Amino acid sequence: MLSQVKQDRTKMGQELRAVFVATLDELITKNQKVITLEADLGSASGFANLTQKHSQQLINVGISEANMMGVASGLSLTGHIPFCHTFAPFATRRAFDQLFISGGYAQTTINIFGSDPGFAVGPNGGTHTSWEDVTLMRMIPNSIVCDPADGIQLAWLIRELADKAGIHYIRANRKAVREVYETDARFELGKGNILKQGRHIVLFAAGQLVSETLDIAEELALKGIDVTVVDMFTIKPLDSNLVIELSKTHDLMISIENHSVTGGLGSAIADVIAETGINAKLLKIGVNERFGQVGCPDYLQDEFGLSKDKMQAKILDFINKV
Fold first, then answer.
1. Which long-range contacts (CB under 8 A, 24 or more apart) does 30-35 make?
2. Backbone angles phi, psi at 58, to 5 degrees
3. What residue ranges do the domains of the chain occupy?
4. Percent of the chain scoring above 90 in pLDDT
5. How confident is the model at residue 2 (pLDDT cuts 50, 70, 90)?
6. Strands 81-87 and 110-115
C-alpha cells in the first residue's frame, strides 16, 4: 500500500462533487436502474448537470430530506439503486428516523452522500455543521460508513457500494482536497490502509485529515518519533484485526477525525481495545462538546483544534505525559 501514496501531496485534486457526479454518470450510463436524488442542492452538488444526459435519473425532492430517504427506500423496493445527496447533518440527523426504519429496518438499499462534514461546512455555520453524523449512521444495524481521503478513493467507493445492498453512508467535502493516492490505488471495504510504517506510535486517520496526518508523521520523524499512519476510511465495519495487530508493536495509538470524539472513529477503536483487552493507550483527536460556527474552513479547522500544528501539539503532549 505504501507505493500507492502520492509523493507530492501538495496538489489539490478535482472537486469531490465533480468526482461524485462523473462517477454517477458512468454508473447510470451502464445501468438505468441507478437513480439520483437531491434535496434542492443540485447546483451546489453538481447533480443538476446529470439532467443533460440523464433527465429521467434525477429527482429533486426539494428541501425535504426525510421524504427523500423515503422515496429512495421505495425506489429500492422496485429494483432501483438510489444515490441521495444533501449536506451531512440533513442527510443524517434530520432524516435519521426514515433512514433507520424505511431504510435499515425495511432492509432497503440507500446510498447517501453527506457533504461538507465538520469544518468543511465553512460559512454555512452551526446549523449546517455535523460533528455527529458518523455516530448516527454507525447506529443503523449492518450499515456501512466511509470517510474517503480524496477523489480517487471516493470514486472507488461509489462504484463498490453501487453493487451492494443496504444502507451506505459516505461523508466528504464537496470542494477539492489534497490528493493522497495514486490513480491506480486499490482498496478493500473494511480494511485499513497502512500508508507509512513506523515503530513507536500509530495514527489512525479518516477523511481529508489523512493528508495532514501524513504531514505530521513526517515532522515527527525529524524529532526521532517513528510513526505508522493508517487510513481507516471504512469506519464501519472497522478493521478490528489491524487495530489488534498494531497494538502489539506500537506503544501509543491516536485517532484523528473531522468529527466528534464521541461515537466516531476514535470510539470505534476504543471499543476494540475494551472488548479485546488490549493493553494500549489511546488519544482521540476530534471535537469535544462543541457546536459549529460560522467561518471559512481553514479558520474553523484551526478553531476546532484540527489544524496540523494543533494536532501535532496534542500528539507531542500525549507522548510526553505517558
1. 31/81, 31/162, 32/56, 32/57, 33/79, 33/80, 33/81, 34/80, 34/81, 34/83, 34/162, 35/59, 35/72, 35/75, 35/80, 35/81, 35/82, 35/83
2. -120, 125
3. 14-178, 193-321
4. 89
5. low
6. parallel
| Beta partners for residue 111, in sequence order | 83, 168
Angle between helices 151-162 and 16-30 (to 10 degrees): 30
> For residue range 88-107, what is the model confidence (pLDDT) as tens digits?
999 999 999 999 999 999 99
Residue entry with cell 478490528: 240
User: 14-178 falls under which CATH superfamily?
Assistant: Thiamin diphosphate (ThDP)-binding fold, Pyr/PP domains (3.40.50.970)
How far from 101 is each of 69, 95, 96, 167, 168, CA to CA, in Å? 10, 10, 9, 11, 14
Report whether pLDDT(156) > 50: yes
Q: What is the CATH number of domain 193-321?
A: 3.40.50.920
pLDDT digits (tens, 9 = 90+) for 273-294: 999 999 899 999 999 999 999 9
Q: Which residues of 280-294 are buried (b: 16+ CB within 10 A; e: fewer)?
A: bbbbbbbbeeeebee
Determine contact, residues 164/35, Cβ cutoff 8 Å.
no
Does 14-178 match 193-321 in CATH topology? yes
